[in-house]
Fold:
Amino acid sequence: MRMRVIAAAVALWAACEAPNRGAPPGRQAGVRVVDVIPLSLSGETWQDAEPFLALYDSDPKLLAASAFTPNPGGSASATAPIFVSNDGGDSWTLRNTLPSEVMTADITHAVGGNPPVLYAGILKVPGVPLNELKTGDFLSAAKMTLQASRADIDQPFVRTTAIASADRVYVGLNDFDAPDGRTATVDVSLDGGATYTSRRIETRNTLGQNGPSIRPAVAQDHTVYVAYFGWRSQAGSDVTSDVVVVRDDSGATGATPFRDLLDPSDHLAGRLVATHVTIPWSNAPTLGQERIGSTLSIAVNPLHSDTVYMAWADRVGTGDIYTVHLRRSGDRGATWSGDRRTVTNATNASLAVAANGTVGLLYQQVTGSGDASRWVTRLERSRDGFATHEDVVLADVPATTPAFQFLPYIGDYNGLLARGNVFLGIFSANNAPDSANFPQGVVYQRRVDFPTHRLLDGSGAAVAVSIDPFFFSVPVLP
Structure:
């Protein structure tokens, strides 16, 4: 989202102590929650917001993660970090391999067909131009290779699929240089990122731009869906928007891609899943110190591309600030259900579908009010299209502390993926080492003292509470 305010990076201090564990009773079997900040950064107090996750199907030990995390070396390094794990997420280290000063603005990433290839889309600091990047080995300390770059882009969102000849890369983004205010765009590479072509997916008039969230999802048969907000008009801080999904049945390899799903109302490409919804557009703290306005997610059943799910947030009426909606299509997006799930005062909805059809919905919800308000991070799982569901509370933390340093506070998005019989994801939250805040338990790499609920630096001195990224894994439903 535009209008980011990002402060200078804080100094980070090293420490040396074994990981710390808190495991309250009543945990659900197979659930892990891990604070991603490594032991060497135990003294950091940064707001590590807006996390993202990438993983390899072929090697479950290899994972990459990111957040608004600064390089401990400061601006002289001229690089920004990602987190990497080679043990399935039990531990994480930092690799300063992104060509950006100190830290990035937005960053997302996805893997290629031959591990550990990683593709990334970042907004480089300063100036926030788009950089589309690649590395053949994300565990390496070598800087990622720049493949394409340009200005006037917001929220790059990377998805990939592997074929025998080359990886295909799809970067959903809001391109302010697109003609006629139809800014919803997918940068498509059919040759492993060597070249990119910008594909415009909006076919209707806008108020001058689309919403910032342009979200691709790819099935194993190479069907590509993309969800976006069709912004139509604005009154004050409220945007009237359509929720739209386009589809391409051949991996966007044709001359006019993303034209395989038409709406019956006007026969234009892009099915109108919901029309004239109210998006409260706020670049100020609005919900639990967080801004709102861009929550959107789409996921396709990887083995059965007819089945696709969408989630977004809008304002329903006077009784809510921001409500998440979940809908389902079983006929390749031609028709959609009504709301299968709604969650009031929630944001950061992320969807994934496991190979056995289990759907996961990750979101973060503000409960309570005033000083008693809390951010609750929850994963819901369903095997029947959300006729019923089971949930797991991953975190339940104060929403009023720490005070925000910049926006986004915890992020405009988080991440959820499925691999085999497990959901893997990442979210950002208050990092106070209090077992009551993490009902499924939590593992810290950074130094903590659970009895006193304190974070500690390398010398054992107390460290202020801040925002950290947390990796998690949860079994799918049998």
